[in-house]
Specification:
Length: about 280
């Protein structure tokens, strides 16, 4: 059984684990803190999503654990490679499962719950959920994929806002604790070049209402479009509704150049939203 005590012990282990990295790598603390904050916010997002689907208490607590630990591999990844690009370093989801196993974190849980947590973490960042017979693993993977996307949209739209408003020389302290430091944060842009280019195969995926493959990205605009195309991969009406209410996509569009490619994407996204939002019962 999952208890409140277990959840509390995971939260304090998480804080201790993150603090070790901050102490050992003070120069990297800004991005370590951004990721730690993301883990906590994803945890809140996934709880709200789970509750919207009327899951029971035990299942809600299970989602909370998946949310908190889904990116636990990011800290080791960033400390070792100073990038969040898996292709330039290592698969951060696999790293996360390694970290949890090395530290015997999930030992108090049933084998079934451990399997759900490990597999949901492994499946959270793949382009698609790999073929899987266990329906509960598929279900919890869908939950974390939606919650993660919702909070990444929050994170990057806050980042683009700060980036445009504040000069690069502003220090982290001056920019305040709420968001990333003023100016650029190349790690959040996967070190992609910020020019006006949009790759044709990225646009083509969106025209086909498909998610964009990470390998197709060549520019920061491509990455922004990849994140916009996550819309097509949302699994629950609740998530589309939340995305719409938070206006995350409009905020990303505001940072893109105005040209016929971007206009085409806007058209497709608006049509998709209209078709899906109609079905909501308010
Ligand atoms: Fe992740």
């Amino acid at each position: 059984m999952i208890t409140k005590n277990i959840i509390d012990s995971y939260k304090s282990w998480f804080d201790d684990y993150v603090n070790q990295f901050i102490q050992q790598y003070p120069d990297l603390s800004e991005n370590i803190e951004i990721k730690a904050n993301h883990c906590k916010k994803v945890s809140s997002e996934i709880i709200a999503l789970a509750q919207s689907l009327n899951l029971n208490n035990e299942e809600v607590m299970l989602t909370e654990i998946i949310g908190l630990f889904h990116d636990i591999g990011r800290f080791r990844q960033f400390a070792k490679y100073q990038t969040f690009s898996d292709s330039k370093s290592q698969n951060h989801a696999e790293l996360g499962v390694e970290v949890l196993k090395e530290n015997n974190i999930l030992n108090d849980l049933s084998m079934e719950n451990q399997e759900i947590i490990y597999n949901s973490i492994l499946n959270h960042s793949t382009a698609k959920i790999p073929p899987e017979k266990n329906e509960r693993i598929v279900f919890f993977s869908k939950l974390i994929r939606d919650a993660d996307k919702l909070d990444i949209w929050r994170l990057i739209t806050e980042y683009y806002m700060v980036k445009e408003q504040k000069p690069a020389r502003l220090s982290a302290k001056q920019a305040g604790k709420a968001g990333p430091a003023g100016g650029e944060n190349k790690a959040l842009e996967l070190e992609l070049p910020d020019n006006d280019e949009i790759s044709d195969n990225v646009l083509e995926s969106i025209i086909n209402k498909q998610v964009v493959m990470k390998e197709s990205m060549k520019t920061l605009n491509d990455f922004k479009l990849l994140q916009i195309a996550w819309l097509f991969d949302l699994n629950f009406d609740y998530s589309i509704k939340r995305l719409h209410e938070k206006k995350y996509l409009d905020k990303i569009f505001n940072t893109l150049p105005e040209n016929h490619k971007v206009n085409k994407v806007k058209e497709i996204v608006n049509e998709y939203l209209e078709n899906h939002i109609e079905t909501f019962t308010y």
